[in-house]
Amino acid sequence: MKTGVIGLRMGKAHLTGYEQNPDTEPYGICDTDEERLRITQKEFNIPFATNDYRKLLEIKDIEIISVATPDYYHRQQCVDALFAGKHVLCEKPLALNIDDCIEIARAVKKSGKKFMVGQVCRFAPGFVLTKEIIESGEIGELFFVESEYAHDYRAAEGVGKWRKDKRRKPFIGGGCHAVDLLRWIAGDPVEVFAYSNHRCLDDWPVDDATLAIYRFEKDVMGKVFCSIGCIRPYTMRSVFYGTKGTIVSDNTSNQILLCSTRYFKTKSNYDFVKIPVRIISHNVHAEINYFVGCLLNNKTIEMDVIEGTKTVAACLAAVISSEENRKVNIREELFGKFENL
Ligand SMILES: NC(=O)c1ccc[n+]([C@@H]2O[C@H](COP(=O)([O-])OP(=O)(O)OC[C@H]3O[C@@H](n4cnc5c(N)ncnc54)[C@H](O)[C@@H]3O)[C@@H](O)[C@H]2O)c1
Question: What residues make up the domain containing 174?
Answer without folding.
Answer: 122-279+313-331
